[in-house]
Amino acid sequence: MSNLTARLTAEDRARRIKVLIFDVDGVLTDGQLYFLPQTGPDGKQYGLEFKGFTAHDGLGITLARLGGLRVGIITKRESATVAIRARDLKLEFVYQGQAHKLAAAQEIAFKAGVTLGELAYVGDDVVDLPVMRACGLAVATANARAQVKAIAHYITPNPGGQGAGRDAIDFILTAQGRLNTAIAALLDAENPAALAADIDTGRM
User: Fold this and answer.
1) Which residues on adjacent β-strands are paired with residue 74?
2) 170-197: per-residue pLDDT in tens?
3) Is 20 within 8 Å of 118 (Cβ atoms)?
4) How far apart are CA 9 and CA 154, in angstroms?
5) Buried b (16+ CB within 10 A) or exposed e, 146-177
6) For the segment 50-59, what is each residue's pLDDT rounded down to a tens digit?
7) Which residues pair with 47 in a beta bridge?
8) Which of 88, 121, 134, 159 could cross-link 142 (Cys pair, CB 3.0–4.6 Å)?
9) How far is residue 102's CA from residue 48's CA, in Å, rounded to a whole number?
10) What is the pTM of this model?
């Protein structure tokens, strides 16, 4: 890292961001994992996993897209619930089952035609550290582990699952001078981009 890069403020870094990537558990959710016991046709027991997401983050992702950001997720777990939420929010980049997240972040940057310095990542636990050390803007949630907060350029006021994702989006769009424009676009009843934003149905 150059001395110039090291001296950049969080706002300076946010102004450069073109792609925003979230972890899921503990970031877009509160980190709790719920399992509903089920019995399969073969008589074996298994658990149906479900999670809670906040609508504030969902609307924030719409604002991010209207503000010109490309948005996605990288998560270690595989979850049908996450797949449904990602589809409803029309996330461009969806990487599940990623034990080593930096490779996924590098692939996203390549696909998006950006550098890692133009990518922001929001994380909460040590598995997120490699991406956060490499990206342009590392964001830790209020509930993040101490090691994650120690390297973060910005720490959200709210914890995961309670608006941390929205905090990160508002911070970036504010730094870029695009938040109010994105809100105006969202509220424009004749704006086709706003109408085609997240459908948020949760349908299977």
Assistant:
1) 95
2) 999 999 999 999 999 999 988 777 666 6
3) no
4) 9
5) eebeeebbbbbebbbbbbbbbbbbbbbbebbe
6) 788 999 999 9
7) 37
8) 159
9) 29
10) 0.89
